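Re: your question from the hallway

Yes, I did run it. Sequences:
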Amino acid sequence: MEAVDSQTTLVASFHIGDMLFGIDALRVEEAIKVVDITAVPHAPEHIPGVINLRGRIVTVVNLAKKLGMPESPISESSRFIIISWHDEYIGFLVDSVSDVVAVDALSVQPPPSNVRGMQGANFEGVQQIDAGLLIILKVSAVLDG
Amino acid sequence: MKLFTDVAIGKRLGAGYAVILFLMLFVIAVGLMLLSSINDKLEHIVKVNGVKQQLSNDGRDAVNNIMLTMAKMLLVGNASSRIEEKKFIDEQRTRYKRTFEELEKLEVNDEGKKLISKVKDAVSSTREANNRVIELTMAGRTTEAAPIFVKESLSNSKAMDTAVGEIVSYNENRTNFRYEEAKQKYRITVAVFVVIAVLSILLVVYLGYAITRSITKPVASGVRFATEMSKGDLTQTLEIKQKDEVGVLAGSLQTMSGNLRSMFKDVTTGVQTLSSSSTELSAISQQMSAGTEQTSQKTKTVAAASEEMSTSMMTVASAMEQATTNLSSVATATEQMTSTVREIAGNAEKARNVTNSAVGKAASISDKVNDLGTAANAIGKITESISAISAQTNLLALNATIEAARAGAAGKGFAVVANEIKELAKQTATATEDIKTKIEAIQSSTQSNIAEVGEISGIIKEVNEIVTTIAAAIEEQSVATKDIARNIAQASQGIQEVNQNVAQSSVVSKQIASSIAEVNQASGEIASSGSQVQSSAEALSKLAEGLKAQVDRFKV
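Structure:
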């Protein structure tokens, strides 16, 4: 594990489709395997429903849908990434989780205005790592927008 | 004039004659009438006026006689002569009485009648005096009588005479008057006659001319037409459109000319047809001749052919001999084949038994290999569990790292633990992959073994089938061989039949030969008929030419 200093951020990376995204690890509560989703009537399209995580209600967000990407069906490798958001827990449905990587804040590029049709406002920035191009998500933009 | 031409000739002539007759009768009638009138007048003159004249004279004469006699009586006379003269006077009185009565009867005019009555008055006025005279005279008292006679009778008789003279001159006048009348009538008659005569003559001349012309003109055209026709010109037309006999005749001539024209045209056509037909007939009979020639040739060919057939029959007979020999050798061969077949059948059985056992062995191998496959699958399942453990471990590592990060400085120790877990996850993953690979290898090997065993099984099955097929084929062979044997028997029989047929054919070909002779004869007859037809056709042709010459004389 690399040394953590003030300029290094730990980013939890995951795949949606063939694209590599990342969320700041400090924001992430945990990652779990996919469990049964209880559907919520009149919920928006990107919210398939809710789950019960050790007594807590977690709102599931289909991140692919939210970002406007083509969806993939839920598979063995699909995971929920649980984050806390304004006193509630959100579970991002992703296709697979990857490593937690250390990202040098200085080498983070500003995001392009448009990535494969997704608004650039959703992203903090992009970073080239060994596994490929990491797109760091701006959670506030994703959940508020 | 249509009136002339449309009435029948007889009627026309009759009418003409009738007109003439009528005119004649009319003239005669008028003439007779006028003549009769004249005659009447003449008669009147004679019968009436003349007679009247006569009577008047007669009457005067009688009266004068009476006077004279009275005088005579007075002057001369003796008793006896006076008696005679009195008788004479009475006679005369009777005479003039009768005369004046007749005159009165004849007189029809008032003037005349007046004169007559005047005379009668005169007579009657004198009568009394005369009677007295006569009386006196008869009594002999002539001296008394004479002065009465002189004074009264004579003057009376003069008056009477004058009156009678008036009558006479009146009658003369009347006679003249009638004469003038008659002359006038005559003049009128002459004038009327002349006028009627002139008119009649004109009318008769005109009628005569018109009627004659109405007959002769069309007849002349008809004659012209007929003359032309007789010369052979049938193209003329006759334009006579009348409804009388001449018209009918002209129409008939026209029709006749037309009919003759069309008839000749038809005849001409017919002659042409005849000509061409006879030519055709000629050609046909020639063809027939040629045909019979051919028939003759053909019959010769057939005769030759039947000769050949006879020869062929003999060849066939010898061939049959040969066939019979061959059949016997075939029969022998078939026997041999049967025994061979039996051998093969036995061997095929043995082969089948062997393959059956091979199939059984292959099946058991297959089962064992299947067991191997099942075991490999079981191992595979275990691998899956190991994989799941690996994934879970990975997740654990991730979460640990996250917790460590969130813990910040306090989480450094935990971070080490998290790292170890990550390593563990990696190793597990690697080991799992390894096992997976090996199992896959075993599985694929197993699969190929199964496939090979399957192939061997399949091959053995094929061999089995082939052997079965051979066995079946052998059976069939056996059946076929029996068939052959039967066929040989039939063939033998067939050969017998053929021999019989050959014998028959000989008979038949003899029949053919005689038939050919008949055909030959028949074609000979046809040939002679053909030449007859030919000569007939020629005669026909000549006839057609003759007709044509005849017809050509006429212009149509």
